[in-house]
Structures are given as C-alpha cells and as structure tokens.
Amino acid sequence: MPLHRLYLAGPDVFRPDAAEHGRKLVALCAEYGFTGVFPLDLSLPGDLPTPHAVARHIYQANVASIDACDAVLANLDFFRGAEPDSGTCFEVGYAVARGKPVFGYVPEGGSLAARIRQRHAGLVGEGGLADAQGWQLEEFDLPLNLMLAVPCRVVVGDARIALAALRMQQAQHNATRLSASAGPA
After folding, report:
1. Which of 52, 71, 109, 135 is 20 to 30 A (C-alpha) from 32?
2. Residue 119 is assigned to a structural domain of this protein
3. Pairing state of beta strands 35-37 and 71-75?
4. Each residue of 136-166: pLDDT tens digit?
C-alpha cells in the first residue's frame, strides 16, 4: 500500500518552538516524498467556550487527521520521564487499531531498561533491574515498552532516519509488487 500522508505524532507540539519545528518536520517529509500533517497546523475555532471544549476539539481533530493519513511517524523519545508522551502513545495505539503502519524513532539504541539506566539513573534501584520503588524494569531487548515496540517499526535516530527507513520500505514494497505483477520470466 503506498504511503503518502504521514501524521506527525510526538511531544513536539509542546516545544517552545513548536510551530517552527512542525514546519521543519513537514518540509523534511516533503524531501522524502511524503505529506506531513503536524497537529498544530490544525486551526482552532475562536468560539470554543471552555478549556474542555478546546481539548475536545483538539482530540477530535487529531483523530480525524490520523484517519485521513496513511501512516504515523512518531517521536517516541522519553518525555517528562522515562516513557514517551502519553498522548503520542494513544495516537500510536489508535493508528495501529485502524490498521495504519507506524514508524517511530528514539535517539539512542538499547533496550528500554538500558535506556532508562543510561538517561534516568536516579530512577533505577540498586542492581539496575528495578526502579527505585522496586518495580521491575521491562527487559525484552526492545527500545520501548513492548506494546509500542512490537506493532511499530522503531528506528534509532531522528525523524530523518525514520523517513529514510520508511522510504526504503516503500521502495522494497514497490519492487516486490512490480516483480510479482511481471509474473514468471
């Protein structure tokens, strides 16, 4: 299935330079032949009466954007702790439930437990196999919780690396389709 429109999920919407960063992500998608859809590009009506109404509108607009896209490109780096942004996790799960491919990226390699030990040593208890409260660190040799890492294609690097992997997968898919349609030689 050709992928053209990518929903750009991630905590990037909370950056101080979110609008500019979103424009850069959309331009980067275009370099790889995709149309990027950044959540902040959606306009808010000026007549929403309460913060809850604003939140509901944003939720509905983001879900509609995911529905209108072919795939999700997700920044799954740690956010405000040792896990990805919860809103991004929802968007990934929603996309997976809708049968859309998800390509995620994290800045460093290693298992989730190793990444936590590396970046959040203060959260890890003695011995490094549990957190400071004694809760077990997940260790399946996956870079994220298995509920994200198993259904997503996760690459180490940034959005550019993930887009290159997505473009390569598309090219391989197209080549396979072409050779299958050509039939036996």
Report:
1. 109
2. no
3. unpaired
4. 999 999 999 999 999 999 999 999 999 999 9
Distance CA 159, CA 137 (A): 27
% of the chain beyond a pLDDT of 70: 94
Q: Give residues with Cβ within 8 angstroms of 49, minimum separation 6.
A: none
In a domain, 129, yes or no: no
Q: Kindly state the average pLDDT of the residues 96-114.
A: 96
* 55 phi and psi angles, rounded to 5 deg: -60, -45
Q: Which amino acid is at 171?
A: A
Q: What residue type is assigned to position 128 of the chain?
A: G
Count of structural domains, the chain: 1
Is 122 part of a structural domain of the chain?
A: no
Q: Is residue 136 part of a domain?
A: no
The boundaries of the domain holding residue 152 are: 5-109+143-182
117-127 per-position pLDDT tens digit: 999 998 898 88
> What is the domain-level CATH number for residue 68?
3.40.50.450
What would the DSSP string read from start to end of 35-91?
EEE-GGGSPPPTT--SHHHHHHHHHHHHHHHHHHSSEEEEE-S--SSSS--HHHHHH
